[in-house]
């Protein structure tokens, strides 16, 4: 870890705890800052805040008092989930107080270079693939970010021999300043999180921050099949490496005659890849480029792709019960992700879908439901998804209270050879705290069938 003095004796407010806030507060305290932590959860119910209090850090819990901004803070480190229209954040910006996320801290203290991955879909799978490829190639990678490991915690342990492979959301990317990854990847871009960003333009702008500080010495890997990512590339100073699943490229990664290729080199036959789904070829191509740029040999890349079957909750194979195969794709929190899952299978599908209503009508699902023989819905969006299912000609449509009840209902309408797929096309927050909780409940319900 770099010993930096930039925060020594600075008054810093850490707004919002969770894992990232706790780690950031403790790190800043160690770097000599005068840290105040503010979290909405009452102190009596907040073991994280109590732990920071024991370290000598000032803690204010229970609400976000706007008058805190009058205490002369020189920097705010905010939890990425707190939107910029929050009164505390808006007030800080109005006063000219810089606002960052802990990813910026991680970059400033890290001895290791970063490979940073963002996009609407495929981030976690791509991040995990890169980590596995670098690990197989003996490159000593560390994994961090939105995938579940706090970046500033990982950065404290990293050395120059490591590479930090970090998944970044648009929320995190809005709060960076000097962050400059050696390799940046944008998997794809579609409308998402408009409830947070307000407009499509603001969402795209946040994603483009990943390459904002890059120079011609760094790399930006982008999806050449999308105008949105190409537009970001046109405004980047980094060396651009494109990938495409639809066309042959003179430079970059692409598909040719059943092979994944890099520049003029065949790397691996697609039929030998273990990870299902056409959409995963995008993730594989971008991960392969990052691995090749990091000096990983083809043999290590091939070894990973022959054995890697996916990340939990992302088109995850669960088990087979009496000839029915169950897949957990709880991370499919939008229609595009559900479409990718539906396109991954040739066998008849019983689809489990529904969740938080964000105003989508789901008409984009229509062309992809032809292989769905039965539909089981739940959550706020159940009526909307049922309407689309009826228009697609699905004869068996059943509504249940929750995922736990959806699994046996789906099983009742299945037969050997069928795929039973949880791919909700919606966020989980109407019924479940996270998509992980929803996926775990699905897995548990599947195992009850045995």
UniProtKB/TrEMBL annotation:
<dbReference type="GO" id="GO:0005524">
    <property type="term" value="F:ATP binding"/>
</dbReference>
<feature type="domain" description="Mur ligase C-terminal">
    <location>
        <begin position="313"/>
        <end position="426"/>
    </location>
</feature>
<dbReference type="GO" id="GO:0005737">
    <property type="term" value="C:cytoplasm"/>
</dbReference>
<keyword id="KW-0573">Peptidoglycan synthesis</keyword>
<dbReference type="InterPro" id="IPR004101">
    <property type="entry name" value="Mur_ligase_C"/>
</dbReference>
<protein>
    <recommendedName>
        <fullName>UDP-N-acetylmuramoylalanine--D-glutamate ligase</fullName>
        <ecNumber>6.3.2.9</ecNumber>
    </recommendedName>
</protein>
<dbReference type="InterPro" id="IPR005762">
    <property type="entry name" value="MurD"/>
</dbReference>
<dbReference type="Pfam" id="PF08245">
    <property type="entry name" value="Mur_ligase_M"/>
</dbReference>
<dbReference type="GO" id="GO:0008360">
    <property type="term" value="P:regulation of cell shape"/>
</dbReference>
<keyword id="KW-0067">ATP-binding</keyword>
<dbReference type="Pfam" id="PF02875">
    <property type="entry name" value="Mur_ligase_C"/>
</dbReference>
<dbReference type="GO" id="GO:0009252">
    <property type="term" value="P:peptidoglycan biosynthetic process"/>
</dbReference>
<keyword id="KW-0132">Cell division</keyword>
<keyword id="KW-0547">Nucleotide-binding</keyword>
<dbReference type="GO" id="GO:0051301">
    <property type="term" value="P:cell division"/>
</dbReference>
<dbReference type="InterPro" id="IPR013221">
    <property type="entry name" value="Mur_ligase_cen"/>
</dbReference>
<keyword id="KW-0961">Cell wall biogenesis/degradation</keyword>
<comment type="similarity">
    <text>Belongs to the MurCDEF family.</text>
</comment>
<dbReference type="InterPro" id="IPR036615">
    <property type="entry name" value="Mur_ligase_C_dom_sf"/>
</dbReference>
<dbReference type="GO" id="GO:0008764">
    <property type="term" value="F:UDP-N-acetylmuramoylalanine-D-glutamate ligase activity"/>
</dbReference>
<dbReference type="GO" id="GO:0071555">
    <property type="term" value="P:cell wall organization"/>
</dbReference>
<comment type="pathway">
    <text>Cell wall biogenesis; peptidoglycan biosynthesis.</text>
</comment>
<feature type="binding site">
    <location>
        <begin position="119"/>
        <end position="125"/>
    </location>
    <ligand>
        <name>ATP</name>
    </ligand>
</feature>
<dbReference type="InterPro" id="IPR036565">
    <property type="entry name" value="Mur-like_cat_sf"/>
</dbReference>
<keyword id="KW-0963">Cytoplasm</keyword>
<keyword id="KW-0131">Cell cycle</keyword>
<keyword id="KW-0436">Ligase</keyword>
<feature type="domain" description="Mur ligase central">
    <location>
        <begin position="117"/>
        <end position="291"/>
    </location>
</feature>
<comment type="function">
    <text>Cell wall formation. Catalyzes the addition of glutamate to the nucleotide precursor UDP-N-acetylmuramoyl-L-alanine (UMA).</text>
</comment>
<dbReference type="Pfam" id="PF21799">
    <property type="entry name" value="MurD-like_N"/>
</dbReference>
<keyword id="KW-0133">Cell shape</keyword>
């Amino acid at each position: 870890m770099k010993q930096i003095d930039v925060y020594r004796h600075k008054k810093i407010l850490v707004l919002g705890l969770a894992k990232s806030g706790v780690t950031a507060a403790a790190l800043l305290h160690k770097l000599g800052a005068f840290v105040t932590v503010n979290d909405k959860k009452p102190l009596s119910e907040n073991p994280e805040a109590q732990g920071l209090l024991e370290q000598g850090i000032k803690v204010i819990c229970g609400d976000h008092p706007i008058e805190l901004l009058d205490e002369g803070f020189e920097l705010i480190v905010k939890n990425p989930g707190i939107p910029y229209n929050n009164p505390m954040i808006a007030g800080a910006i109005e006063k000219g107080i810089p606002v960052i996320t802990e990813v910026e801290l991680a970059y400033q203290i890290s001895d290791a270079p970063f490979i940073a991955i963002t996009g609407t879909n495929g981030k976690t799978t791509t991040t995990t693939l890169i980590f596995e490829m670098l690990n197989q190639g003996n490159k000593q990678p560390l994994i961090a970010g939105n995938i579940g490991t706090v970046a500033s915690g990982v950065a404290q342990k990293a050395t120059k021999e490591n590479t930090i492979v970090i998944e970044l959301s648009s929320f995190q990317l809005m709060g960076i300043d000097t962050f400059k990854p050696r390799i940046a990847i944008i998997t794809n871009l579609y409308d998402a999180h408009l409830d947070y960003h307000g407009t499509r333009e603001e969402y795209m702008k946040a994603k483009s921050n990943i390459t904002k500080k890059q120079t011609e010495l760094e790399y930006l890997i982008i999806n050449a099949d999308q105008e949105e990512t190409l537009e970001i590339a046109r405004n980047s100073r980094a060396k651009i490496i494109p990938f495409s699943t639809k066309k042959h490229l003179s430079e970059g990664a692409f598909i040719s005659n059943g092979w994944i290729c890099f520049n003029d080199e065949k790397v691996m036959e697609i039929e030998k890849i273990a990870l299902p789904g056409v959409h995963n070829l995008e993730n594989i191509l971008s991960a392969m480029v990052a691995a090749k740029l990091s000096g990983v040999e083809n043999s290590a890349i091939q070894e990973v792709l022959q054995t890697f079957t996916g990340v939990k909750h992302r088109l995850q194979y669960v088990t087979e019960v009496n000839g029915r195969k169950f897949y957990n794709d709880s991370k499919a929190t939008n229609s595009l992700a559900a479409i990718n899952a539906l396109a991954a299978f040739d066998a008849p599908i019983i689809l489990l879908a529904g969740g938080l209503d964000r105003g989508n009508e789901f008409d984009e699902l229509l062309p992809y439901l032809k292989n769905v023989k039965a539909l089981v819905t739940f959550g706020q969006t159940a009526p909307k998804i049922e309407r689309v299912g009826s228009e697609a000609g699905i004869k068996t449509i059943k509504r249940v209270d929750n995922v736990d009840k959806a699994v046996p209902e789906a099983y009742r309408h299945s037969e050997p050879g069928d795929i039973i797929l949880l791919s909700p096309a919606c966020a989980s927050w109407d019924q479940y705290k996270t998509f992980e909780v929803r996926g775990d409940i699905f897995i548990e319900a599947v195992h009850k069938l045995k």
